[in-house]
TrEMBL record:
Clp R domain span: 1-158
Keywords (A to Z) from UniProt: Repeat
One Pfam family in the UniProt entry: Clp_N
Protein name, UniProt field: Clp R domain-containing protein
Organism: Streptomyces hygroscopicus
InterPro entries associated with the record: Clp_N_dom_sf, Clp_R_N
Stored SUPFAM superfamilies: Double Clp-N motif
Length: 158
């Protein structure tokens, strides 16, 4: 098993825990993003931190996106005493948005050259979904952040 394979396994295990904490039956791209943001010292974590996105800020942005989505259908979480999610009892499966993010990551470089920033770039390349909505609500320019990741990858290659 390569060093990147071990790293990816760790990212997915953390994302699985995030999904279980959310009560989700699937690991989605936003769970991968939370995992990357919590991975102290990785390039992906450093790029996210450079725009103010640590794990807590990503969680806050995702919570804001959830509240915003509810408000679009006329539900205000503040008006109701909504229960928190119940931790999922079964191991979550890989969801479509996470699979797509990983596919985009893997297609961006040769396997031996893959790094944490490639995973982040794969997540940021999504045009629709929870992550783009959450980043927009947090005031993060997703395209600029993706460009920053690309520049970081270029500088690491030199």
């Amino acid at each position: 098993m390569s060093a990147f394979d071990k790293y990816l396994h760790g990212v997915i295990v953390r994302a699985m825990a995030e999904a279980q904490d959310d009560g989700s039956g699937t690991i989605d791209a936003h769970h991968l993003l939370l995992s990357l943001a919590a991975d102290q010292g990785s390039t992906a974590q450093q790029v996210l931190a450079s725009v103010g996105l640590d794990r807590a800020a990503v969680r806050e942005a995702l919570d804001r996106e959830f509240e915003h989505s509810l408000s679009m259908v006329g539900v205000s979480p503040a008006a109701y005493d909504l229960p928190g999610p119940s931790r999922a009892s079964q191991q979550p499966k890989m969801g479509a948005s996470a699979r797509l993010a990983l596919d985009r990551s893997f297609s961006s470089a040769r396997k031996k050259d893959l790094r944490s920033a490639h995973l982040l770039l794969g997540i940021l390349q999504a045009q629709i979904g929870t992550v783009p909505r959450a980043l927009a609500l947090a005031g993060i320019d997703q395209a600029k952040l993706a460009d920053r990741v690309r520049q970081t990858l270029i500088s690491q290659e030199q």
